[in-house]
Automatic annotation (TrEMBL):
Domain SnoaL-like: 9-98
InterPro entries: NTF2-like_dom_sf, SnoaL-like
Pfam families: SnoaL_2
Residue runs in coiled coils: none
Assigned keywords, A-Z: Isomerase
Any one GO molecular-function label of the UniProt entry: isomerase activity
The protein's name in its UniProt record: Ketosteroid isomerase
Lineage: Bacteria, Pseudomonadati, Pseudomonadota, Betaproteobacteria, Burkholderiales
Length: 162
């Protein structure tokens, strides 16, 4: 059994090292994950997302990858963290600096029960997608399109790798 603070430290330390196995082990079997792109239920799908994203970051060259995390706060039930990822987006090869605020709930065993990441999608899309993201990244239909494409990519990844 781990405290929620231990879980968050273990999660973000693993994330910085692109260790998706260790990240996935921080979630309960029935965990949920939400951010502007993904909405997932269950440890299997959440861990699969982290595997896919970590593989993409590793594949672009670790020289472009950096994760900084701070402001970890947790009690027995809830937690928060601030994190910033610097990476090369695999689709466009553009450098991205994503700034994220995360909120968590925990199981009695100290595992993540729910995880919600919030970031400025338009800011992210301008960096990751260039002119198209600048022109359309603010629009809800564009965010849905990106989310649908990411979900399809995850489904293909899970079918191939699990």
């Amino acid at each position: 059994m781990h405290t929620p603070t231990d879980t968050l430290t273990r999660f973000y330390t693993a994330f910085a090292a692109l260790d998706a196995d260790a990240m996935g082990s921080c979630y309960s079997l029935t965990a949920t994950f939400d951010d502007p792109v993904f909405s997932l239920q269950g440890q299997h799908d959440i861990a699969g997302m982290w595997h896919m994203l970590c593989a993409a970051a590793s594949g672009q060259g670790r020289q472009d990858w950096r994760l900084d995390f701070s402001q970890l706060q947790a009690d027995a039930h809830t937690g928060r963290a601030h994190w910033e990822a610097h990476y090369r987006f695999s689709v466009s090869q553009r450098l991205v600096h994503n700034i994220v605020e995360a909120d968590f709930t925990f199981t009695p065993e100290g595992l993540i029960a729910s995880h919600r990441d919030a970031f400025d999608f338009w800011r992210w899309s301008r960096q990751a997608l260039g002119l198209g993201g600048w022109m359309l990244g603010w629009a809800p239909f564009f965010q849905r399109q990106v989310s649908q494409q990411a979900s399809a990519n995850l489904a293909r990844y899970l079918a191939k790798n699990r």
